[in-house]
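Title: Prediction job returns without error message
Component: structure pipeline
Severity: low
Priority: P3
Assignee: unassigned

Description:
Job completed but the reporter wants confirmation the result is attached to the right record. Sequence as submitted:
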Amino acid sequence: MADLKRTFPTLLACLALGAFGAGCGGDDEEEPAGGGGSAPAEEPTGGGAESGGGEAVEVDTKNTKFVPKAVTVPKGGTITWTNSDSFPHTVTKDKGPGPKFDSGNLEGGDTFEQTFDAAGKIDYLCKLHPGQTGTITVE
């Protein structure tokens, strides 16, 4: 019992730190591209749920979701989607400014890249999974 009283505060501290991404021991969970260790799994490289600041943004297709669901790119910026699922997805423009785009079927591990020159909000989806949607804000 005395050992539990001594280790309990340490255990609580580790659990609290783990909730903020700096836990005790290793974390075997996958990290998004770009690492960072403390970023939640749904954050892209370089930002939060809405990212930007660079000209390139990465979006993961994981568990039948676009991660992150909403991204921001500057005019002339590029987004690269990577299919991390073991089944196909598409990246297909639904509505918004600029030209139409459609990746075609992306198998697991495939990537698709699109550059955006027209400012505004773009909605896109996976034609194979219509509930899988995302938005792009081009500034």
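Comment from assignee: result matches the submitted record. The first helix runs from residue 2 to 19.
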